[in-house]
Fold each of these.
Amino acid sequence: ALKVAIVGLPNVGKSTLFNALTKTAAAQAANYPFCTIEPNTGDVAVPEPRLDVLAAIAGSKEIIPSRITFVDIAGLVRGASKGEGLGNQFLANIRDCDAIAFVARCFVDDDITHVENRIDPISDLEIIETELMLADLESLEKRVVNVEKKAKGGDKEAQTTLRLINMALTPLRAGKPARVVEVSKEDQKAWQMLQLLTSLPALYVSNVDENSADKGNELSDLVAKRAAEDNAKAVVISAKIDSELAVLDPDEQAEFLESLGLVEPGLNRLIREAYALLGLQSYFTVGPKEARAWTIHIGDTAPQAAGVIHTDFEKGFIRAETIAYDDFVALKGEAKAREAGKLRAEGKSYVVKDGDVMNFLFSG
Ligand code: GDP
């Protein structure tokens, strides 16, 4: 499953956020640094209102959403790349993830200690990002000598790697994350092989006080501005509200949201942003048994999409029967969509669109 690391200084609200995400008390929130040691992992459903609509039309018994995994990586502090705090183990845990959510403290509360004794989300982000950049620099500088040698000897792969290492070193030496580098499509694979922490797609999460949950505050505005400069995305949440929402049943939840003037839990936005950040989208399979969302990469072809269900579907792919989501809804299901000529037969090269309702025909 695709994994998103939640990072940030101690006491910015990571555990609170993580608890809300997973609706469990597994990650104990506590008002002191270095509380959580092992990374906590939580599987989270991607909120997808379209799935409910499809299930209602088809009378599906079960609804199965897509999922992504969040990993709570606690204890990153200034000096982590040198083994301070809980040190290098954390960096290894992040390297194992597909994207990073940086939580920045944008709430003021004198009762909650701040490790650096001030509320300054930009500086919080910089401290964490600096540790990640230092870790990247160290790992590249360790490797570069060997790669240079091989490249000089005529090794084509090493030549590509060397070129990419230098592309990464330029921003890193100037104090910028590697994610600001524009990498061509051909180089993507080799670039990912560098396993840089600061080239992972990033989401800056502003944790604001309860009163700013709808529009954010001055601090979260600064974070959003910084995200644009760092080629990252930004989202505003109130971890406290979300943790309270998470334990309510749906009716109470709706009431509480309304009383706060909110349309949906901040978490839903966060999860959707994370999903988009990973370059993901969903297609659906719909029947009387279940309505199900399947996760694919934007740009995946029909056989690749079929392969997510089963590798045999990809190998033996013949064609896909496809109905656009809007058509399925407007015509109230597959039968009428077929009659209206809105069920298309698509071949191997069809690029699946977000929300397609699909059926696969395969041999074998
Ligand atoms: P972590 O160390 O980053 O995982 O932070 P925690 O989630 O453990 O939160 C540290 C403390 O801050 C806890 O006492 C939380 O209840 C509190 N906290 C988290 N988010 C908020 C918030 O939005 N507002 C306020 N006032 N307190 C919060």
Amino acid sequence: MLITNIKGLVGVHSKETLSLRGSELNQLPILENAWLLIEDGLIKDFGLMSNLNTQYANLNTINAEGRFVFPSWCDSHTHLIFAAPREEEFALKIAGKTYEEIAAAGGGILNSASKLLQASEDELFESASIRLSDMIKQGTGAVEIKSGYGLTVESELKMLRIIQRLKAAFPIPIKATLLAAHAYPTEYKNNHQAYIDLIINALLPKVAAESLADYIDVFCEKGFFSNKETAQILEAGAKYGLKPKIHANQLSSTGAVQIGLAHQAVSVDHLEETDTDVLQALGQSPTIATLLPSCSFYINIPFANAKGLLSHNAIVALASDYNPGSAPSGNMNFVVSLACIKLKMTPEQAVNAATLNGSAAMQLSNEVGSIAIGKKANLFITRPMTSLAYLPYSFGQSQVETVILNGEIYHG
Ligand code: NIG
Ligand code: FE
């Protein structure tokens, strides 16, 4: 397949560039008036229209005149398997209740867990498939999915098996994360160690035996998992080769980031609450700072300090956090808009963070995340756009016109 007359071919980073830190995010290489050749599902070559090889004339060709071609969004943090939405909490939130108050009153994660317990694996697979297909149509071409609404051995395994089925059913790379440490089930409210022991002794060996997870996550937060509890779980995961990607500094700054860094986390995610120590630590670390502005937007908490992270030289990624409680949307176009509007990232920084750095946060940047020869042809063609900035500027609307995965048009 050949794509011609591309107004802007976005994210033409060198193949060796696997992530971007600090001021490197300012550079989003764009080839103007370009063509792109796809062969065997991979990016085979690209160049300027003035140098288009005439031997390509017979190929199946898409004329992208006036349009931009982007590498697919790489959404490195989602909880897209859930049994039911939580609109009842929406009303409570509008009435002024905070996320913590709703959770403490038995809403929140525990509410989702009791609903998931009742749902069959097939039902959950079907509803997750619809969400994932919608996300793909909005430009997402690689995704991470967490468990964490199971909170029993069987229910967590059920979630992870559904992720395995999604991996087999969808034409995009998918990474699975074990998030059994998402909240304490009510029966363990006064016996945290017993739940941790269950994760470590009963769940982890099964997850490892069936190779059901790529990463391990903990909601390290006041009222959820303490720093010590988080460390214990991450150490147990490490014995099975599971690297951490953790929920850190979402509601308070109490050392979660430092716990992640001490355990060589691939990413620490959220970071709505940071102090200078956190910014400095991330600026000197290979751990990726993944920001989730849809969550701040939806539950009315502070937006992460993206500018501070970038000026301290951190590797900043953007993801959707798609989940029923704090971010009921998997729309990465909106995430990129929010990053510009609320985090004050430039369109170039935001696109880099949502593509190449997102792929790095899933250890997939050899395969996806930029336009480079040999990478998967996972990309999208926009509607006609005046400039790159039009995409985040036109918030709430999708400029994605054609999705191409493994070199084939995705119809969903
Ligand atoms: O990333 N903070 C923890 N987990 C999710 C929310 C989960 C929920 O409310 O169901 C998050 O925001
Ligand atoms: Fe999350």
